[in-house]
Specification:
With 703 residues, the chain is of the alpha+beta class. Helix content is 23%, strand content 27%. Strand 15 and strand 16 (440-447) form a beta hairpin. It is globular and about 70 Å long.
Length: 703
Amino acid sequence: MNDLNDFLKTISLSFIFFLLLSLPTVAEADVTNKVNYSKDVIYQVVTDRFSDGNPGNNPSGAIFSQNCIDLHKYCGGDWQGIIDKINDGYLTDLGITALWISQPVENVYALHPSGYTSYHGYWARDYKKTNPYYGNFDDFDRLMSTAHSNGIKVIMDFTPNHSSPALETNPNYVENGAIYDNGTLLGNYSNDQQNLFHHNGGTDFSSYEDSIYRNLYDLADYDLNNTVMDQYLKESIKFWLDKGIDGIRVDAVKHMSEGWQTSLMSDIYSHKPVFTFGEWFLGSGEVDPQNHHFANESGMSLLDFQFGQTIRNVLKDRTSNWYDFNEMITSTEKEYNEVIDQVTFIDNHDMSRFSVGSSSNRQTDMALAVLLTSRGVPTIYYGTEQYITGGNDPENRKPLKTFDRSTNSYQIISKLASLRQTNSALGYGTTTERWLNEDIYIYERTFGNSIVLTAVNSSNSNQTITNLNTSLPQGNYTDELQQRLDGNTITVNANGAVNSFQLRANSVAVWQVSNPSTSPLIGQVGPMMGKAGNTITVSGEGFGDERGSVLFDSTSSEIISWSNTEISAKVPNVAGGYYDLSVVTAANIKSPTYKEFEILSGNQVSVRFGVNNATTSPGTNLYIVGNVSELGNWDADKAIGPMFNQVMYQYPTWYYDISVPAGKNLEYKYIKKDQNGNVVWQSGNNRTYTSPTTGTDTVMINW
């Protein structure tokens, strides 16, 4: 009898243990929303330079540098090193909830004639194999499972613009840009029988068109209008999505057509939607309307170089002041449709390190505090928390030699990363300037009744702050940084007026109240583009625990899941175009709208539209407009263009690569539009064309 009881007890305990293993942990639940990074803090890792967890997979020979003496060569960092720093708590204690890793695919093995190697991951050779110096697929799987079990999302870098260095005149240059499909050679640059690459020389960066259809430096540039290359790259990113990645950073988006990239994003969002952001480099002080257009129309967010360059100018180089920073915040809130989804930073692998020596550590701390309390998705470049210094590539990619958790920057990141998780104002809030001069910036982030007030004094003297008003409720507020940057307590009166106080020299203070809304408020929708039947996630507060409805304008969508802070729903089957979203609770309370979700007209393909003999006078450009939303729905103000006429074809032939619905009977015309907006329509009947069901195409007509 005792044996039977013991047996039954064992069976019961085993069953309970099985159930416990089957239930998702809190950490695992945190990574199920792969399209909303508003409350996350990303940590960017150059995999080869972070930590060498397995010396056994280090390369040998000329491409490896023992002790990383030569920063152009491999130094040994790998996925095991990242796993180790998750497991020992370095990344979790820092508050990191997303890791951006180097592109994980196989790269070229050859040494560049200038002594460079592919340690950075940007010289792809085979997108369906791993870089063996980072690890094998088992190692990658363990990285994913370790990250997920610790509540960390994994973002992969992705380079669909180019393969590797190549020269038209020298087939032995590096590996001749060769690209493989799981071990099978697709082609190389100087013997390009399938026309996989552009052969238009290197870009001089003189125009947007020039940068798209010519090589970036000596990198073999893909012809994305080639069906083989189009399909291969889209298959490849789906391969890594199936491996469990939670986000994608797309390299060099400025150097590929927006049309092809929109078709790529449609493929991703139909397969397994994840947060995706691109790299569109902007220099100091540079503002590019095409950058804003891309972020609003392509289906992906961008690295926010306007933010990064401005904060560097204010706190690192001291060439700008807080008026300039506030102007950037104000203007970008208008220019980006989803400004909270743009990815912010103070330094990265494409610019010099923020820290320039021990004397600048205070400026690094202050910049991190501003980064982590401002709008956008903040990214920490590995080692910034250890005050690594260095100029441009490769000096900004030194190995991380210390993992000190006591540095001020480490502690500041940890505290503010935690605050981003608990106070929705930091993830979703709008920004209001509350007090401003050249040296002082006090700004408030507000979402519903949750508020974060941040004050920065970048001068070398204490400043008395008077006549400050805030939305914070009446009371006393202590600095959330616990005076790590010499912040102080403030007193707020019933009318929102703050008693005068001293803001110390080179200080930052953060005060907050978290009061989640009980009425529905949408904080973020991801993705903001998709076709009928795609899944989107609506995040926010006050949705209630009982199912209500999600409206696209007035059309209800199918609800997949519903909670007080997160809803999954399907895009309804309505005509392509832009729709405002709202949430209606079970109690029939309607949220404010979330503007301009783009519903696509179906699966997307990239098509090159071209027209011959379209002569124009100076200042006049050519556009295309047609019968679907992707072609502007016959609205000349929404016509696609201006078209190109210099590289792939030359004036008076014009061309443009556009994402259009697959297998669709399209009608369209070209129009000429001058600088004053005057329009001349192409004469005759509408032109007709049936788009392919897959792949790419080119359609040329005469004006």
